[in-house]
Write a structure and sequence with these properties.
The chain is mostly beta strands. It has one domain: Cupredoxins -  blue copper proteins (Immunoglobulin-like). 0% of the residues lie in helices and 50% in strands. The chain has no helices and seven strands. The strands form two sheets. A five-stranded mixed β-sheet has the order 1-7-6-3-4, with no helix packed on it. It has a two-stranded antiparallel ribbon with strand order 2-5. A hairpin with a 7-residue loop joins strand 6 and strand 7. The protein is globular. The termini are far apart. The chain binds copper (II) ion. Copper (II) ion binds next to loops.
Length: 78
């Protein structure tokens, strides 16, 4: 997580894989998933540290930071 972006914006993982979001920006962000079957729980506002979520269902799962317009990304689970 950067100042107002996710990098990379999209990642592809195998089913039951884990994604780690690392916020090194010092800026408050969150990870809010678009409602869909199989999404993990949202990651609430935080300004540092790492958070992991595991994806058990194949599909494309969009997410965004609700604090910063245009700060969005996706996880593709194969
Ligand atoms: Cu943000």
């Amino acid at each position: 997580m950067g100042a107002a972006s996710f990098a990379p914006t999209s990642v592809t993982i195998a089913a039951n894989g884990t994604v780690t979001w690392n916020n090194t920006s010092g800026i408050t962000h969150n990870v809010t998933f678009t409602a869909a079957t199989g999404v993990p729980s949202n990651i609430s506002d935080h300004s540092s540290g790492t958070n992991q979520r595991t994806f058990g269902t194949a599909g494309t799962f969009a997410f965004r930071c609700t604090l910063h317009g245009g700060m969005d990304g996706s996880v593709v689970v194969q």
